[in-house]
Amino acid sequence: MFSWLWAILIAALIAPGVNRVVGYRGAWLLAFAPIGVVGCLLKQWRSVIDQRGVSASIDWVPALNLAVSLRLDGLSLLFGLLVTGIGAVVLVYAGTYLKRDDRLGRLWLFLLLFMAAMLGLVLAENLLTLFVFWELTSITSYLLIGFNHNRGESRASALQALLVTGGGGLLLLPGLILLGIAGQSFELSELVTGAEQIRQHSSYVPILLLILIGAFTKSAQFPFHFWLPNAMAAPTPISAYLHSATMVKAGVYLIARLHPILGGTPQWFWLIAPVGTVTMILGVVLALRATDLKQILAYSTVSVLGTLTMLLGIGTAGTLTAALALLVAHAFYKGGLFLMAGSIDHAVHQRDIRKLSGLRTVMPATFMAAVLAGLSMAGILPTFGFVAKETWYEAVGRISGVVSADEELTGLQGSWRVVCFLSLAVLSSIGMVAAAGLVCVKPFVGRKSEAVCDAHESGPALWGSPALLGAIGLLLGLFPARVSELLTAGSTAVAGQSVEVELALWHGVNLRLILSLLTLAGGTALYWHRHRLESLWVSLARVLSYGPSSAYQWLLNTVNRLARQLTSVLQNGYLRFYLLTMVGTTVGSVWLALRGELLPRLKPVTLHLRTHEVLLTGLILLAAIAAVRATTWLLAVGALGIVGYAVAGIFVLFGAPDLAMTQFVIETLTVILFVMAFSRLPDFRRLSSARTRARDAVIALGAGTTITVLLLFAMTVRSDHPISDFYVGHSVPDAHGRNVVNVILVDFRALDTLGEITVLSIAAIGVYSLLTLRPHPPADRFVEKSDAADGSSIGTFGAAHQVTGASPHPEQEGP
Amino acid sequence: MDSVILKTAVRFLLPLLLLSSVFLFLRGHNEPGGGFVGGLVATGAIALYALTYGVAAARQIVRVSPRILIGAGLLLGLAAGLAPLTQGRPFLTGLWTSAPIAGFGNVHIGTPMLFDLSVYCVVTGVTLVFIFTLLEE
What we know:
Number of strands of chain A: 2
Largest sheet of chain B: 2 strands, antiparallel
Strand order of the largest sheet of chain A: 1-2
Low-confidence stretches of chain A: 401-411, 780-815
Distance between the termini of chain A: 59 Å
Structural class of chain A: mainly alpha
Radius of gyration of chain B: 17 Å
Largest sheet of chain A: 2 strands, antiparallel
Shape of chain A: elongated
Strand order of the largest sheet of chain B: 1-2
Oligomer: heterodimer
Largest interface: A-B, 40 and 52 residues
Order of helices and strands of chain B: HHHHEEH
Low-confidence stretches of chain B: none
Distance between the termini of chain B: 16 Å
Number of helices of chain A: 37
Strand content of chain A: under 5%
Number of strands of chain B: 2
Structural class of chain B: mainly alpha
Number of helices of chain B: 5
Mean pLDDT of chain B: 88
């Protein structure tokens, strides 16, 4: 199974090269990878239908019990086929769509990376594996929405999608971890067997909430639905694939996947079904209001996602099956419609349905594709959309008989619930029929509008791909037996118990059929009288301006403003302030952490001082005082150097030659650096007031005292078995070195060292950019400002800048 | 700095200091020394040269850009960390082998030495960046 992921990943990596060498027809070549995976998945068909799961696993971090494990069951097979099958079609379509664009290679790369991530997501058996793939889909989606990165609007939409879905992911992770703790396993199949315990667990509701927010953000459920229409900034093939057929269904997938573990409780119903219902209705209303082809499709996708969520939330065997059937139908018709919209956009460069009409004679093949997919969207007889809708109506009609674990439904309550859900379902379907009319009929009928006059049919890939997807929808409707098998396996996986699914195109004349006809009639009427809704939209616009989208905007602006304020306080460009903050924080946190323990545990230390030690210490003190009182740069730097050298001398006396040696070299280099710097500084001047100096003295004394006390404290907490014994004992046999200090640095604690040299490199980049890339503001203005700000600046621009460095324009940010 | 004494002295000091830097680096595993201090000594030597003869001359002595030294050092460190993975051992585990080298007898060679070399490169590169950019200001 890992080879499937590798195949797609390798195709992704060679995609830019293929584009360069073969050109846009290379898509056919790249499509071999997903088509091959489709073949492999179909080969597993029998064993999956017979409920024999296929699984694979590799140890990831054995020390932490982390494994990357994959498993194929009915649900993952269903999703896997959609992901790879539609992916292959979209890949070929994208090749023609972006023909002769040198960014095509990048598009393929991202598209295939996404495909691998999504396939991994639906195959994942381990919760953490699932999460990793989940986040990867968010990231690739971000890259794809922002594909036209030179447009600000695209970047903003991409960021919005990333923030919303990534924020949801941030909540999902603790949810999954809590679930793993509650179920004492991160493997889904083991969690299913322990489901009863998890539902009784005290953290059941937090788990459910956290995971659901993650799923709702991903699947654009109310109130997080607003990112999906904005994600239409992506190229149309991407919208078709990610934001309609696959990625946005990841949330639905997660809910379905976790249903056997977390489902079947009142909380499950009340947290999921209402959200899904609201999203379903809201989506269809907004879809009818939109005028852009892609926006209509996006909002109707939101509506369908709401329906799926609602059906999963109701959670009877029938509704679970209906959800899967609807999901399959939607993937094909919506993918097809998006591709059709892309073809129109490609040919006419216009997506506004008010400016599109009469395309049927200009683009007959596209019209055919649109009709195929549109019939399925409207749920008209021979298509799979019809079958799915019938299943949906039937399942909702039967929920009255269901009694959930803790809740006795009286007959009246049950039937009330049926009427409620059924009427809302019919309402949303009516809207869907009208939306299908807007997308598939409106642009093609009537007189040719101005925009479409010089349009013409694009290449066969551009109309063939949507036609293919539409035709599949039709075929599935005509021959539903095979899908029934798959849906049986899928529903069994979702329901956690054996489910029999028998899909059929014709059930005879019954209530469902009458409801379907009613839906169709209502939808057609709504489509014809859509102009009457104009006034409704006007009044609706006022309400919508307070929607979650504006809350998102407000949040984003507030965070940015806060960050700017915080930065101007913390990063104000004054080095002394930085020192103050760092020293103060260190001292403060030491006292805060060891408040009660520090002083009582100090014991008087008896010192056996030798003469040369006293002399060395005296030298340090003298040099320190000289450094503070110095009146020239040379004296100050020299005195500091003496302090350093004398400290190194103490290291020598107490048997730390390595440390001493390093200290000597460091001191030498520091003095050299200082000499280089102050050869450019102006004369040494004292500009700080007596008060500032007194304050600094207090801080310095405080810091010194803290470190002294801390060292004395450290003497009292020595254990009988210091860690150094381990190092000394293992240095020669394990690490082949007699110098323990160096062995610790490069072997025992090499990871720390690796981190340190990385930080060092970053510091080098920082110094380099500060010194070479800074702008040169007028010198005089700067001096005036900084002097006025705090009277202790060093003098001319160059000097102040050498020291402050970090902020090229302190006058703009300073207090 | 235009001083005949310094110029003459640096001519002799530079090779000596660089040699001692390599010496410190090589003995590091068994005696006081190591990549960190070795790298610092190398920088000290080059800094002295740069002060005397100018940065351009010093850059010629180093031959590679300090930035490349940093990058190469980090990559070496990563390589030393990744090498044990090929043997199925955890990241950064030391791998050792011994080989007879003429004049030294049997010498232990292992990935920690490679790692020490990476520290040497990064430290030299970083401090050289500091010094060169400051001097070129």
